[in-house]
């Protein structure tokens, strides 16, 4: 099975976050997840795509010469 579904706890471990932070980000719609019977679930491929977008949106350090 290529579509791996993760629990909130597994996502927290995967992203190296606390459970509370992962829950907050999911609740705020900042992590790509969905609820099943009141519990958060996440597709690993959605998280990987989200990570790539976050890398692209990362603020770049100023490189001005003084």
TrEMBL record:
InterPro entries: DNA-bd_dom_put_sf, HTH_17, SinI_DNA-bd. SUPFAM superfamilies: Putative DNA-binding domain. GO terms for molecular function: DNA binding. It comes from the Bacteria. The lineage of its organism: Bacteria, Pseudomonadati, Pseudomonadota, Gammaproteobacteria, Alteromonadales. It comes from Shewanella saliphila. Keywords: DNA-binding. This is DNA-binding protein. Residues 6-52 form the Helix-turn-helix domain. The keyword RNA-binding does not apply.
């Amino acid at each position: 099975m290529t579509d791996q579904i993760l629990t909130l706890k597994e996502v927290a471990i995967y992203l190296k976050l606390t459970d509370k932070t992962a829950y907050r980000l999911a609740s705020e719609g900042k992590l790509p997840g969905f609820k099943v019977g009141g519990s958060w679930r996440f597709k690993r491929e959605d998280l990987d795509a989200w990570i790539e977008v976050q890398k692209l949106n990362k603020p770049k350090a100023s490189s001005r010469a003084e």
